[in-house]
Amino acid sequence: MRADSDWGAPASYIPELARVDPAQFAISVVTADGRLHTAGNAETRFSVQSITKVFTLAIALGRSGDQLWQRVGREPSGLAFNSIIQLEQEQGRPRNPFINAGAIVTTDEVLSGRAPRDALAEIVQFIRTAAGSDDIHINEAVAASETAHGHRNFALAHFLASFDNLKNPPEMTLGTYFHHCALEMTTTQLAMAGRFLMGSPAGPGLLSTARVRRLNALMLTCGHYDGSGDFAYRVGIPGKSGVGGGILAIVPGQASIAVWSPGLNHYGNSLKGTEALAMLASRMNWSIF
Amino acid sequence: MRADSDWGAPASYIPELARVDPAQFAISVVTADGRLHTAGNAETRFSVQSITKVFTLAIALGRSGDQLWQRVGREPSGLAFNSIIQLEQEQGRPRNPFINAGAIVTTDEVLSGRAPRDALAEIVQFIRTAAGSDDIHINEAVAASETAHGHRNFALAHFLASFDNLKNPPEMTLGTYFHHCALEMTTTQLAMAGRFLMGSPAGPGLLSTARVRRLNALMLTCGHYDGSGDFAYRVGIPGKSGVGGGILAIVPGQASIAVWSPGLNHYGNSLKGTEALAMLASRMNWSIF
Amino acid sequence: MRADSDWGAPASYIPELARVDPAQFAISVVTADGRLHTAGNAETRFSVQSITKVFTLAIALGRSGDQLWQRVGREPSGLAFNSIIQLEQEQGRPRNPFINAGAIVTTDEVLSGRAPRDALAEIVQFIRTAAGSDDIHINEAVAASETAHGHRNFALAHFLASFDNLKNPPEMTLGTYFHHCALEMTTTQLAMAGRFLMGSPAGPGLLSTARVRRLNALMLTCGHYDGSGDFAYRVGIPGKSGVGGGILAIVPGQASIAVWSPGLNHYGNSLKGTEALAMLASRMNWSIF
Amino acid sequence: MRADSDWGAPASYIPELARVDPAQFAISVVTADGRLHTAGNAETRFSVQSITKVFTLAIALGRSGDQLWQRVGREPSGLAFNSIIQLEQEQGRPRNPFINAGAIVTTDEVLSGRAPRDALAEIVQFIRTAAGSDDIHINEAVAASETAHGHRNFALAHFLASFDNLKNPPEMTLGTYFHHCALEMTTTQLAMAGRFLMGSPAGPGLLSTARVRRLNALMLTCGHYDGSGDFAYRVGIPGKSGVGGGILAIVPGQASIAVWSPGLNHYGNSLKGTEALAMLASRMNWSIF
């Protein structure tokens, strides 16, 4: 991973992400025995973006249980993360909670009538507790920029509303959505926050084993948009990527891993992050299969 | 699972499958220590259909290696098993080897210039070796009926050919495809044949560990057509279903399971077979997540 | 057309349209010699809705000429009037100016930086001049209701904006759009307003003959959403329908016809209005073919 | 149209069409008074291809009447001429008789149990009678080449069969289809053959006025594939194009026009032929609008 390698290009749709230097890399691994291993810029904060969808899904399932699945499906989409095509073909029910439309629905479920600040407080507190750190914050400039450039997400939210699959006004749900996506974390904070998905005693015990397994199943089948099958094939463990270049990956019972490198591959997932995870999993003989 | 339960309806597109009594059930489990457990009609032969796609994929990868992926993808399809829509949208490259179009391509790769009988002999011998039984045969009546009613598959094959993604004449590749899908096995034979996917020393060691893991990854993300995400969520282990009502499921390192019940759910997967696997996995605490 | 006939159901998406009695009918015909013929409730005002898209297109072409076609196409859509699928597949360029997305673009072009009230004033004045009547007004309750229930149109507008195919803020363009769709006219006013599309000296001479012909061509190929081919086949003259149950139809050089009956067929076009036009065209031997 | 102009590229999918020199042009016009006007290579025979779909449709309507519309629609497709997507989405009913799938259905209807040679004899005789010339023949080399390279059409035919929308075996219907598409005519023969679509006494009176009008309506809305709206807008008269570079266009009551120039535009319609028709229609003030 020398300076002359191809690092991929960072997300370009908002200036805050576009101007990040792609030639950065960090990895943090927390093993089941509680030990932490890091390399690279592991104390640099980055925009976790879609990775928060795992945490909001955990909260939404905690609040609503299986009723949530009436509003959103559990199948891979076969299309880009922000596609609206299936939403029309399938009457406003997003395919899964990890594409944008589905995450807007889970955010809407977490919101459910409360003021956005209260829902956000719950989401942030959940992540801080999971990570064991209070030093995790929302980048307001990123949230504002997402709002200003978020026409595609506004389209998705209004489309959901046209099928009565939004309980709150689109602006309110999207405001909450843009803010939790704008959380910033270091890879170490993120790996710590993912411990509960190991399903081991080392985790904070926030969810039942059955629910943890189901979150991992969803990450495996849907966590990398239309590159999920490829990630499962090449890396072999559940993971969730964000457009900021982060990936949270879980080796059940063994490790919680966070990588970050801002350059993306053509699926919109971290290029070097994916390669690093494939290498690490292979060398450690980590695979769920 | 009493007589008054809803067993689902068997596949109806050919008489040979349509007239099977749906109120049948069998399960066979082979554990890593080589012990066999069975229940129900475990000695009844049924049409394994799409489950053979796992074996032909294993053979195709053995013959062609990663070059195969130039002709077929590794992503869930988000559409029905016999849909032709993505094939047009993605220039004749099927999304994965387990939807019909993809399995026609892997069959075409296994065929590669040989007489169909030679390719079929290799496929049947692979499965017999894996199962440790020579008493596994093709049902010619089923193969003939598939051919007679196979307009949708002929459409897929000609469509592939129109994009130069078929090396052999459509009739020849389809003849081979229809024949290996017409193999009949008992659940015990199928569970035995699946041992090599456990990746354990008890298996016949036909493939490397890395390749076994990748086959399991593909089964998990794509093995149940557009119900793959749901199966991963509810059952939590890799599996491949067939329209004859069979499912082969793998608990890596621990068990190879075959279930059979001819009634299907709306995805085209065995209704009772899926339920039985979910129950068994839960009680045995078997999950890859 | 007796009381016991099937009148179809009125549009149901806003209360103002849903509560209109479907068992109403009106027709007004203005011939090239300037004579007016009417039958039914020809002095009842109804919501013209999408029929205004013809007039806004005429204005947009007058302001921008053929540059408009960089933003919107001229092909039938093959999908419902409010579908968003092709908008994604074709990078935010609507197929034609008569589906919702296309009419939002032409409205945006008419608006082009002005205050909505100024653009609306131009649209209303154009129609009043064409009709030779100042007694044509916007129903503010309908406009407000469209805004309140317009999530699908908001989705389309934001989607257009995400592809940089909207010059004004979505709310501003949509406000203008909802208002001109909420114009109310009688069939007589509408038939009078359509005279300029006859291309005859009796018309107000607002447009060149070439442009008039092109507007008629667009009405023929795209004027009845995904029922345009059927209307051309059965009726044989250009027309533009509105979800309020009105249709403006043109016999070039001979007649401008307005019909109204609020019950719709499954394409969303007036059921009895279409039947009446087919009957009239047949009896009068009016056809462009 | 000098030597240095851009003539477009001829169809490339079979050698017989690909090797035609694109820098050729011919036009023949028959007016209602029976006079013939020609320019260019008006005695050169070219492959009329899809233009025969107009004649087979006329025959199919004569044999089956409106029952034909149960098997095929009358709406523009919004997709390429050989797309299979809508065929799956709309359960095997092609959108109109002028896209490939629809023309296979009308050919199947004309065939209806007879030997292909008998159906072909009827089609050829119909065209010869319409043209007033017996010197019109099928190019067997073109028909054979279409068969050899016709995987996309085989896919369409089998797909239709899978929905029970084919009465004859796919090979038989396609054999008939490929043969009538392989007819060769001069522009003069074609313009003569189109006279009956003028609806005037000069025509051979093969069809009723109502049916003639409906054929023209279908040509206008669907006759140029996904460029039909553009042709209606720019040229303003009904027409049907063929991939061999020919176009038959009709000015109802006034003229039957055939143009030919083998180079195609991106819709698959003759580039120079379309331009010539636009120019001619404009200069002659010919328009149906």
TrEMBL record, chains A, B, C, D:
Biological process, per Gene Ontology: glutamate biosynthetic process; L-glutamine catabolic process
Swiss-Prot/TrEMBL catalytic activity: L-glutamine + H2O = L-glutamate + NH4(+)
Keyword Acetylation: yes
Organism superkingdom: Bacteria
MF GO annotations: glutaminase activity
InterPro entries linked: Beta-lactam/transpept-like (IPR012338), Glutaminase (IPR015868)
Protein's UniProt name: Glutaminase
EC nos: 3.5.1.2
Binding-site positions, substrate: S50, N100, E146, N153, Y177, Y225, V243
UniProt subunit comment: Homotetramer.
Family according to the record: Belongs to the glutaminase family.
KW Cell membrane (keyword) present: no
Organism name: Sulfitobacter sediminilitoris
Keywords: Acetylation, Hydrolase
